[in-house]
Amino acid sequence: MDTEAVRSFVRAAEFGQLQHAADELGVTQQAVSKRVAALERELEVRLFIRTARGVELTLDGQAFLPHARSIVAGVDRAVTAVRPGSRALRIDVLGLRSAQAVVLHDYWRSHPETDLDVVTLRVNDPHVAAAAVQAGDVDASFRTVTDPATLPRDVQMIHAFDSPLELLVGPRHPLASARTVTPPQLRKLRIWVPGIVPRSEWAEFYDQLATAFDLRIDAAGPNFGNEVLLDALVDSADVATLVGARDRYIWPASYDLRRIPIVNPTLAYPLSLMLPRTTPHPGLRAVINHFASLAPLPGAVWLPSWATTPRRSAGDIAHTRH
Amino acid sequence: MDTEAVRSFVRAAEFGQLQHAADELGVTQQAVSKRVAALERELEVRLFIRTARGVELTLDGQAFLPHARSIVAGVDRAVTAVRPGSRALRIDVLGLRSAQAVVLHDYWRSHPETDLDVVTLRVNDPHVAAAAVQAGDVDASFRTVTDPATLPRDVQMIHAFDSPLELLVGPRHPLASARTVTPPQLRKLRIWVPGIVPRSEWAEFYDQLATAFDLRIDAAGPNFGNEVLLDALVDSADVATLVGARDRYIWPASYDLRRIPIVNPTLAYPLSLMLPRTTPHPGLRAVINHFASLAPLPGAVWLPSWATTPRRSAGDIAHTRH
DNA sequence: ATGCCCGCCCAACTGATAGTTGTGGCTCGC
DNA sequence: GCGAGCCACAACTATCAGTTGGGCGGGCAT
Question: Within a 13 Å sphere around the CA of B272, how many CA atoms are in the beta-carbon half?
């Protein structure tokens, strides 16, 4: 099916004339006639009743029209998503089920008219992500460099929101039925956090966390895949892992796992957003405002050492827009 | 843009291999390669990174993918909407802003996965609509024949729901600031209800209504268009009209009109649904159940004489399905 | 009643293109 | 180092989209 034919059909249905649609689309009336005829042949259905005054939708045409509109709208959105220059807002997240993506999805649900594309740079190094932001490959990235001095000149990093952690344990774990746990209660546990890239910001986060509360966190080992971790969690009476409270990682229903909030203090990972210092994408402002409107974490909160930068609002980047 | 190319892109992105997508789509690998290349040429963007193991989405490809999925889904829905034989549920309404369409829209919002097409037969005679139902051109029609004996053998008519009427008046009308009105209060008014086809079920409805409450209803005159009626309403101190409480007819904001509910008794038009007696469309059952779940009208209700058939539920038509 | 005009379809032509087969290059794993 | 797997390029063909030109039919005005 040719989307230009679908577009011709929509316009012709709206105008009630092939001629008018042809004029608008910059082709001859015959071309529109053939396009519609091709559609009708493909669908094996008559879409228009031809009259001397123009065309009129048949029942099938009426039924087809809203779907045709949806196709055309989809095509237009698809094109603007990748059009170089004036493309839709594109934000890099670590994974599509991460807290970052979940919060972005929340934003999109409250602003469904926004053209927002969530992508994942297949790189580990936040400095590569910073370079992608600098190059304009993405408009913003949810990555953190722990030393802001290593950022490119024209990339800034602002605080987005804090992501609280929860303990994930299997049914045989002694804390399995706890409603909340405190960091001191984690002291004797074996906490597996696989898949952490050495020397990454996550490695440093877990390092500081282990030191601060005298925890035993295995973050170094290679990632053998989610199944290995999940199998270990389900079977073990002392292995646990940490997940973001907003993460929406899914696992087969066969895994009987429990999420337990951590409080006093809440352990939180500070999520940052990297964006160009000059002329950031216009759509970013509303997204950042959305972060600011998120409810702050209740009670005491522990954060890693680098999360000492003051909170910034969208207003702070406003002057950089031209 | 060719939707088969878009579909190929989606499958290739999911499989990570052009080859695999080609096998599934029943074309050669080269064809898929050319389709993707054509898409890339049209979008002026690279969608895949080619590797020796297959293909991998670029950032642009990631951004494009969800829109591509939406296009493909739209195409599939469009095709099923008109596919002869197994097509989507298609219901005829009097107008897209009528109470019938509004209630169907409510239904669809609570069951968004339903493939439902709302169309309008461009005919006045309910018997023509009945013939369309019989022929399978539509799966059901919101029309009423006041004498069920005139229906074709294999078409049945069931009660859908009652649509209460409201008074529509301009600002200078003496009832303009009333919160409700009763039928006796309408006795001296000039009520214009233009566009009523003589001898139609609506003509008979207004006829019975006028007789029952000694009203003066001008339903015979030709329809000069909405503007004429609206102009008359705005200017006049005694002209009023009746609209369905659920109707969503829109008029320019410049018209300052008020809707006033009618109570004691509520005046209601009984909406019926005509459907095949044998093998009605499977999706109809849920729609009819939705009607049954609508809140009944409060207080006393006046209905025309033919609305004496007992209410029927979806269960009554269940045995006719094979 | 009789043209006229408008809008659509059909016919013929041409340039583009989608699909096929055949082939070559690349990378990974054994 | 070699084979297997996967993708791109080349050449060919059949199809098709779009153009110009012509004809038909139904309102509408004279």
Answer: 25
